[in-house]
Write a structure and sequence with these properties.
The protein is α/β, with parallel strands linked by helices. It is 45% helix and 16% strand. The protein contains 27 helices and 20 strands. α17 crosses α18, α17 crosses α21 and α19 packs across α20. The structure holds a DNA duplex.
Length: 715
DNA sequence: ATTGTGAAGGTTTTT
DNA sequence: CCTTCACAAT
């Protein structure tokens, strides 16, 4: 490949980044400045011009969608020259590593990846076993605790003992033990275990440091502690990593992401070359001006000014609606009006939370407009799909306790809660898995009567599934296991409408298996193992029509890295966006503002923003004001129209605009405060009956208690 | 042992 | 609003 083929369409800073030598490089790149492009072109440069083997390239990013796109674009440029290259998400690559080195990592061959639902169930059970009160130790909170410790790279024994944390740490310890015994690995564990294995094993580390001389990281602002450490470890002494990021687009703080990693990189990697890419090639002047104005309200940003030479473009349309149905109709009307000229594929509807998609989907369905939802309800999270997968997981690894438990009760086979708990306590005292425990119980005739028959049949059934799925194609394995599980028979007998859908879903699973192709260089593990891991790591695209012209629906989070000529941002209301919860988290509002920045900058040309005066949330009517972020957009960029809704007034000259609306101001909500001794209490009026929250913190001798209370309901 | 009922509780974003 | 859970009835 000729240098000009690669550099042809690039601007100066982009070229500089693509061709830079082996020094550590940090590209500070604004939205739409060609971040991913630079990354892909750099890989092409390394391989095509510098003659580096794909074998030496390690390219990592954050979400599956971004990773897929990167992979696609690389092979578009390089064709088949990508063999041996590691491209994927942090979790995906860590998983790959652990499959290759499960022995060194102390994991069993057929270890399974735990998704967050599984993890939640597991933790819940452990809390029960400890006889702790779930209302005092909510599983969600414990789960959050464990995950954030893992994100920080801390094992239970490494967590600093803190008076309030004792029980949590104990639960973490229990959970670790349980996962180890059952061969289960959660998301955080993938990273942590990978990191530990590398740092404990010098030969292995040396090998990979030698191999991955070229490490590239996209969306670097979203790395968390353990990910940062992993990059640092892998890049070794010379630390020649190439990272790309934009601190203004850091939106995963709640998951441990720390955008300070960007400034940290400059310090800790010797002689880091910083390249700024500030020209935006994506959006019109209007869009960019709006985005810049919003993000300007955040403090502590890295120095960077985004500009464009593009045309002014149309104003941003702001639509006031009465309720969410009106909003959906309005969006669909616009979609229909524009579908001919723009094309459905080029339009995206973005929203803050997945639940918002329902109303919009219904409206699209009614008008028979094809659409595609990303994320949200996960195919692999459905109960019947998990049931079916449990049998396949057991075919791979009979010690998978979670799967054992699931399979034992579905379909019902006379093995109920009582018998299961007998097996569990036996297995626990013996320190073995449920499957082994059940087999031993049988062997030593420790159970009798009906239970004995049920357990014997079940163990035999699992053995049979294991035997009969050996050496078969993936599709046959699925057919066999599902057939032998008796799930379909059971569902057929029920003959309800729901069970018909469930059967469809299970059948769809077989189709998915049939169409499944493991990634090129994944031949080190069996296709079945690969499929099962992907089921946990990816949301599962159940919507077949990937190439059909269709409107794209997704959360603002999933939209990061994508661009569309026409973008709708729906549900622009205080409480929804910025989300209520963000208002009581320190720094929460700033993160929401970055998310808003991300959302606006997805648009290349046309942007429709809408809000509703009222909206049904969890069955209750919620009244809300237009999002405060709207008032941060210069009014001349906005054209506000009403669709039977009350206008925000953000374009009216006389309206008092809160343009200096900083994160501390809570629009219209009553705030009370009281100072006493060394403390301050601040009470904020909530606007729903479930707004109850409080935070404590200390600043230089002053204790703060901020709490929200419920407005009296006089209706 | 399984199934059905009603009450209670939890609601952001993703790997 | 939807899911999960506890308990009663089969």
């Amino acid at each position: 490949m000729e240098p000009e083929d690669i550099l042809g369409q690039l601007n100066e800073p982009q070229r500089e980044a693509v061709t830079s030598g082996a020094n550590p490089v940090m590209v500070l790149a604004g939205a739409g400045s060609g971040k991913t492009r630079v990354l892909v072109h750099r890989i092409a440069w390394l391989i095509g011009v510098d003659n580096i083997s794909p074998f030496n390239v390690f390219a990592v990013t954050f979400t599956n969608k971004a990773a897929n796109e990167m992979r696609e674009r690389i092979s578009e440029m390089l064709g088949l020259e990508t063999r041996g290259m590691w491209v994927g998400t942090f979790h995906g690559l860590a998983h790959k590593f652990l499959r290759l080195h499960c022995k060194e990592a102390g994991l069993e061959q057929g270890f399974q990846v735990l998704d967050s639902g599984d993890q939640h169930r597991q933790i819940k059970k452990i809390i029960k076993e400890r006889r702790l009160d779930e209302s005092y130790y909510p599983p969600k909170e414990v789960q959050w605790f464990i995950n954030s410790q893992k994100d920080l790279g801390l094992r239970a024994k490494q967590v600093k003992e803190d008076a309030g944390k004792k029980q949590h740490i104990q639960l973490y310890r229990d959970y670790e033990k349980r996962c180890a015994r059952s061969g289960l690995v959660d998301f955080g564990e993938l990273l942590l275990c990978c990191y530990e294995t590398l740092s404990k094993n010098n030969d292995l580390l040396a090998h990979y440091q030698q191999r991955f001389k070229n490490i590239l990281v996209d969306e670097f602002q979203d790395t968390n502690e353990i990910q940062y450490q992993m990059i640092k470890l892998l890049s070794g002494e010379d630390g020649a990593a190439f990272v790309v990021g934009d601190d203004d687009q850091s939106i995963y703080r709640w998951r441990g992401a720390n955008s300070a990693n960007m400034s940290r990189f400059q310090k800790e990697f010797v002689d880091t070359r910083v390249i700024k890419m500030e020209q935006n090639y994506r959006s019109t002047k209007t869009i960019l001006a709006a985005a810049n104005a919003v993000i300007a309200n955040n403090d502590e940003r890295l120095e960077k000014t985004l500009w464009t030479s593009a045309e002014e473009g149309p104003q941003i349309k702001l639509v006031a609606n009465h309720d969410e149905y009106g909003e959906a109709h309005n969006i669909i009307d616009t979609i229909q009006a524009k579908s001919k000229s723009i094309g459905l594929n080029n339009m995206a509807v973005l929203y803050r939370s997945n639940a918002q998609s329902r109303v919009i989907e219904e409206a699209l369905l009614r008008q028979a407009i094809p659409y595609r939802v990303y994320g949200g309800f996960r195919f692999f999270d459905r109960a019947e799909v998990k049931d079916a997968l449990a049998y396949l997981r057991l075919a791979v690894n009979q010690n998978d306790d979670l799967a054992f438990e699931r399979a034992s009760s579905m379909p019902p086979k006379g093995l109920g809660a009582k018998t299961l708990s007998d097996i569990q306590s036996f297995a626990q005292t013996e320190g073995v898995s449920l499957f082994v425990g059940a087999s031993q119980l049988l062997e030593h005739s420790l159970i009798s009567g009906r239970a004995k028959n049920a357990v014997r049949d079940f163990v035999a059934q699992l053995q049979k599934i294991k035997n009969e799925t050996e050496n078969k194609s993936l599709k046959e394995q699925f057919e066999t296991a599902i057939h032998l599980s008796g799930l379909i028979n059971f569902l057929q007998q029920k003959k309800s409408e729901q069970s018909a859908t469930k059967i469809d879903n299970v059948m769809e699973l077989i189709n998915a298996a049939h169409g499944y192709r493991p990634l090129l260089d994944e031949d080190e593990i069996t296709p079945l193992e690969s499929f099962l891991s992907h089921a946990a790591l990816e949301s599962g695209d159940n919507q077949a029509s990937e190439w059909q012209d269709s409107v794209q629906l997704m959360t603002m989070h999933s939209a990061k890295g994508l661009e569309f000529p026409l973008v709708f941002i729906a549900g622009m209301e205080d409480g929804l966006f910025p989300h209520q919860r963000s208002q009581i988290e320190v720094g929460g509002l700033e993160e929401e503002r970055r998310l808003c920045y991300v959302a606006i900058t997805r648009s290349m040309r046309e942007l429709y923003i809408s809000y509703a005066n009222q909206r049904l949330i969890h069955g209750l009517t919620n009244y809300s004001r237009p999002s405060r972020f709207l008032y941060e957009i210069p009014e001349e960029l906005i054209d506000e129209v009403s669709n039977q809704g009350v206008l925000s007034g953000s374009t009216k000259k006389n309206h008092k605009r809160s343009s200096k609306n900083k994160s501390s101001s809570l629009l219209g909500q009553r705030i009370h405060h009281h100072v006493f001794g060394e403390g301050v209490v601040i009470a904020i009026e909530g606007d729903g009956d479930n707004t109850r929250a409080q935070i404590n913190f200390e600043t230089e001798g002053t204790k703060w208690l901020v709490l929200s209370y419920t407005k009296l309901n006089l209706m």
